[in-house]
Amino acid sequence: MSGTYLGMPAFPTAAASATRDGQLRANLTHATHTIRDKRARAVAELPDWALLREAGAAIKDRTLRHLDGYLERLEAAVTAAGGQVHWAEDAEAANRIVTDLVLATGEREVVKVKSMATQEIGLNAALERAGVRAYETDLAELIVQLGDDLPSHILVPAIHRNRTEIRDIFRERMAEWGRAAPEGLSDRPADLAEAARLHLRQKFLDAKVAVSGANFMVAETGTMVVVESEGNGRMCLTLPETLISVVGIEKVVPSWRDLEVFLQLLPRSSTAERMNPYTSMWTGTTDDDGPRAFHLVLLDNGRTDTLADTVGRQALRCIRCSACLNVCPVYERAGGHAYGSAYPGPIGAILTPQLRGVGSELDASLPYASSLCGACYEVCPVAIDIPEVLVHLRERVVEGGEVTRNGRRVRIRPARGHAAERAAMRAARWTLDHPGVLRAGQRLAGRMRGLQPRRLPGPGRAWTASRDLPPLPAEPFREWWRRTRGEQREAGR
Amino acid sequence: MRVALFVTCVNDTLFPRTGQAVVTLLERLGVTVDFPEEQSCCGQAQFNTGYRRETEPLVRRFARAFHGYDHIVTPSGSCAAMVRDNYPRIGARASAEGRDRGLASVAASVVPRTYELTEFLVDVLGVTDVGAYYPHAVTYHPTCHGLRMLGLGERPRRLLSAVRGLDLVDLPGAEECCGFGGTFAMKNEAVSAAMGADKARHIEGTGAAAVCTVDNSCQMHIGGTLSRLGSSVRPVHLAEILASTEDEQW
Predict the structure, then answer these.
(1) pLDDT tens digits for A11-30?
(2) Are A218 and A255 in contact (CB under 8 A)?
(3) Is residue B210's pLDDT more than 50?
(4) Crossing angle (nearest 10°) for helices A163-177 and A189-206
(5) How many CB atoms lie within 10 A of CB A482?
(6) Least confident segment among A57-61, A206-210, B229-233, B246-250
(7) Cβ within 8 Å, pair B20-A334
(8) pLDDT of residue A493
(9) The pTM is what?
């Protein structure tokens, strides 16, 4: 599992093996249902939730429409406050910038606060190649790192693990990464938390360089915002001498007034809390307090191309709350790893194929990783119509068309493996557009119904593997209508 | 009032009794029903699989078939949602891409006239008690498109509650998708089957004799799963329950 998402099988294959893992399904069902119910209660407390949601979507949309201007304002404000801004076009550029910054300090270790952006670009592996070891300090990220594993949830990266598994990971692996787990560690949550606290404290006290993400960037003052539950992030943001924040360009909000909306939407949607325990904000550098050097790496990595798509761009509103994962019946069965990127679940199914394109088999399968039930859209605090974007991306997969890649309009071809389906869809459309042919087919099927098999061959096998077919009726509705109503209607006209 | 039945291709071909029930029910309520034979399919399977342009002729056909009717009634939440939610998008995109400039207005014209059956009964006819009799324990699964895209809310349950002899049993996890999702059931068979199995387990747990929905496509998946698991619970479309009377039991 370790290291990279590259080369993962397509979603249906990965998801099928996840559905056979009883322990994984039990862990996920328990965790997602708990958060889902709590979230519903927390949201119901606010009578103006619908308006907040609308405001959140509107602020994000307006910001995205004028993204260039807000980013320049942000850069000016960060610079004026003593920080330094770096622009990274893609993952490789971002990794190079961060690696160079770390190496320039002379350090070979960094502490990290949980960051989706650095997961997206594979920063830890890039640092490793340059001889720098990155220590994850978010509790769940620590579990994932020690377990040589990958995150499987936006908010709870180790959601796929239960506490017995976590105890075993701590016992077996902690010593290799620093302070060992206490003797005879139990699987009580308090004991596990204490073991992690002791292990991490040493890292915080030793670290000279920290790498963070950010939930928001306020353009008017150049202020970065991290919202978290544990306080480990705040340790990373304040103790080291050098702080490097890697943030996607879509995280900018124009002003503090806008921030107010998101600080209501985010905690209730993600952790089902009225307010998250720690909200850390930092603006450039301050004499004798916090890091002496602050670097902001602004990450594009496919975001500008996504912005160019008028339907798909709404995915950039995402504030990474994970409400869509917790309510998604597909995520619950498939688990996060099946999505093959730092962004699992419904939002991952629309974000990843836009950021990376649909060139690989995995990425082309993601828009289909949904039954289009719409539960994700219902809970999304910034009203991203995920089903709409899924269908839009499905069209890109099967029909190809114009997209923006690296800032240029290009025409892409349909993904491979859809020729038979396309032919079938066209044939079906032709038949359905010729009701006489449809009727003849129905009558033929009616006459042959004695021969209806229990298991279908070919593509139909996927249906009959787990479900029976409905028995074919002797007479389709059309024929019944003609027989019982048709002639009298004709006469009445 | 000219009411046209949009029976849907799935019902026409596989579940004709549902269409017959709608006709029986509406005629009992004094409505004259017509069935324009030019109709075929709303195009949902094509559209949701990514073949948007393949649905355009079907949008045009739908509008042509139902031209001149004040009300288009369909016993399918997902087909009604397809027309109401997606036809305007399909029309607008076709116009924007310069392929079919007239399609936007054609698509828009059918949207306000298209009703899912329970909407038509409750909102247009203003009835919740349709005089039905169905002496069985029934549990109701609100299908996703009816629930979330159409916002049917309590309409189906209100109609069921007024049926004499019917014992309406709550379904745990009712609002969770059954796992059908059109071509999803084939493309992601394992996940779809896992969702279906959980839904079937919840249905079995209610002890009901029948599971009722407003959408036979979901019902085909739920019924097929129950049948494969050897369950005796019967899948029934809401229209068939509402059509049932003491004189004529469906």
Answers:
(1) 999 999 999 999 989 989 99
(2) yes
(3) yes
(4) 20
(5) 17
(6) B246-250
(7) no
(8) 47
(9) 0.95
Question: Residue A197 and residue A239: Cα distance in Å, rounded?
Answer: 16
Amino acid in position B141: H
| Local structure of A320: helix, strand or coil | coil
DSSP at A451 = G
pLDDT for res A491: 52
Query: What 8-state DSSP symbol labels residue A45?
Result: T
> How far is the C-alpha of A405 from the C-alpha of A402, rounded, in Å?
10
Q: Chain B 63-82, CB below 8 Å of chain A: which residues?
A: none
Residue range B155-204, pLDDT digits in tens: 999 999 999 999 999 999 999 999 999 999 999 999 999 999 999 999 99
Taking contacts as CB-CB distances below 8 angstroms, the residues of chain B near A433 are: 40, 57-58, 61
Q: Tell me the CA distances in angstroms from B185 to A330, A426, A463, one per residue in order.
A: 12, 20, 7
pLDDT recorded at residue A1: 39
In what side-by-side order are the strands of the sheet with B71-74? B33-34, B3-5, B71-74, B114-116
Looking at the complex, report in whole angstroms how far the Cα of residue A336 sits from the nearest Cα belonging to chain B: 13
Please compute Rg for chain A using Cα positions.
26
Record: contact B144-A375, CB cut-off 8 A = yes
Distance CA B188, CA B191 (A): 6
Question: Which residues of chain A fall short of a pLDDT of 50?
Answer: 1-3, 492-493
A352: left (phi over 0), alpha (psi -120 to 50) or beta: alpha
ipTM of the complex: 0.97
The chain B residue lying nearest A373, using CA atoms, is B144
pLDDT at A418: 86
Q: Is residue A112 within 8 Å of residue A236, measured between CB atoms?
A: yes
Inter-chain contacts counted by CB atoms under 8 A, chains A and B: 192
| Sheet of strand B210-213, all strands in order from the earlier edge strand to the far edge | B167-169, B137-140, B210-213, B234-237
Q: How does strand A242-248 pair with strand A209-212?
A: parallel
Residue that the structure tokens 């324990």 belong to: B137
Is the distance from CB of A339 to CB of A369 less than 8 angstroms? yes
Calpha distance A390→A375 (Å, rounded):
13
Question: Which ranges in A310-434 belong to alpha helices (H)?
Answer: 323-327, 329-334, 345-355, 361-365, 375-379, 386-399, 419-432
Looking at residue A487, its pLDDT comes to 65
User: B227: which residues sit within 8 A by CB, 6+ positions away?
Assistant: A467, A468
Place of tokens 């105890």: A167
Residues 90-129 of B with CB under 8 A from A: none
Assigned token pair, A441: 């087919």
In angstroms, the CA A111 to CA A134 distance is 6
